[in-house]
Write a structure and sequence with these properties.
181 residues; 3-stranded antiparallel β-sheet; 6 helices
């Protein structure tokens, strides 16, 4: 929070892009219907949950204070979908008009979140590494640009992850990546 808010966030200008990537453990606490999601940093202490975890509402509050026009949160942790306030539609833009579309995206303010799953989903791993991160890296390596337009949008990356992550999950295991604002 100190790095994101005070160091990076205070230096950010409106034309900057900030990418926040977290891969680790998550938790959900609270009563049914009023649960809060948390990410658990490497120095997390279960005996000091409220002071050593980072709530999704804290991440939202810090995000609101940052001047950068474009922010992308990528969260590979259990219960990470709790950071989302609204869902965004995911679509793929055809090659024709793609650069015009990309230029339009650069002009608008966007704070986007792609998470490994919903607020109640576990983030599945293979060999100690998140399957979500594996698919995300494939997408960033070019697979999320099937039309070879030369750029990858957050929505295109989210669509790629949503389509390909289920293929890696064991039978009967549920994990639905989320995309939103």
């Amino acid at each position: 929070i100190e790095t994101l808010g005070d160091e990076i966030g205070m230096k950010a200008t409106p034309n900057d892009l900030i990418v926040f990537f977290f891969a680790g453990h998550g938790d959900t606490r609270g009563q049914e219907g009023e649960q809060m999601g948390f990410i658990l940093p490497s120095d997390y202490d279960p005996k000091k949950h409220l002071t050593s975890s980072i709530s999704m509402s804290t991440l939202r509050d810090v995000s609101r204070q940052i001047q950068a026009k474009h922010m992308l949160y990528v969260m590979d942790s259990c219960f990470s979908g709790g950071i989302l306030q609204s869902r965004a539609s995911v679509s793929n833009v055809p090659l024709e008009g793609a650069w015009r579309y990309a230029q339009g995206l650069l002009e608008r303010t966007a704070h986007i979140v792609i998470t490994a799953g919903g607020q109640s989903d576990f983030a599945n791993e293979e060999g100690g590494r998140g399957l979500f991160t594996k698919v995300m890296l494939e997408g960033l390596s070019g697979a999320a640009d099937p039309g070879k337009r030369g750029f990858i949008t957050a929505s295109g990356l989210a669509l790629y992850i949503q389509e390909h992550l289920p293929e890696l999950l064991p039978p009967g295991v549920k994990q639905q990546p989320q995309y939103g604002r």
